[in-house]
Specification:
Oligomer: single chain
Strand content: 15-25%
Strand order of the largest sheet: 1-2-4-3-5-6-7-8
Amino acid sequence: MTQQPAPAADFPVVPLPGARLACTVRGTGPAVLLAHGITCSRAHDARYGLPDYAPVAAHHRLVAYDARGHGESGGRPEPAAYEWSALAGDMLALADHFSLEAPVAAIGCSMGTATALHAALRAPERFFALVLTAVPTAWETRAAQAGLYRRMAALAAEDPAALDALRAAAPTPPVFAGRDQGGVDVRAALLPAVLEGAAGSDLPAPETLARITVPTLVLAWDTDPGHPVSSAETVARHVLGARLSVARTAAEVEGWGQVAADFLREAGS
């Protein structure tokens, strides 16, 4: 009989310096931390996000959490707290909270992927596997994206409604044509700091990524300049033994939940 995921019945709030992080825990087994993208949240991804990681909870304890300043998690209007290297500290604190005696896995999307990479380099012994999806702009492609975030931060500070209109008018990547990508799940008072934190961030230098030796799966989607395939290819090339898969359709992205579940079972065996 196929094992079914346990219901999401546990909603802990983990206190950290300057924030309380809201989490949802599903399933049992080795812990897997699920980290969303910028301006998203657990609730956002449940409404609009791709994919559904419920298959992971069939054999692991899946801990989805709202990043500092996002969704139901708290935060302060301090840009440095939202830089990717700082968010890595939050991920490591959650690893200790939920699995102090054993390493965890991480599944990241965009900002969450960046968080996982910084965390894995800071404390490699705390991870047994990584699933890195939608690797964001980095290195030579980062400057333009950072400039966009700074303009958005200034707009959010002056007129949050105008920022919503700007996002609504932004083109949808062809891979997700016709699909609602959702809105912003960050309180207006924190949004400028969140965006400034992203503007001041970058992925770890490529040459440092060879220090990551745990099984790593890199999943990219095509036709999205904010998450270029080139970033995913560079990460996969430098992380020893990493696997790379590029989705060309939304249907392929929908299948990532099962792909991640299968990969994590293999990595933990």
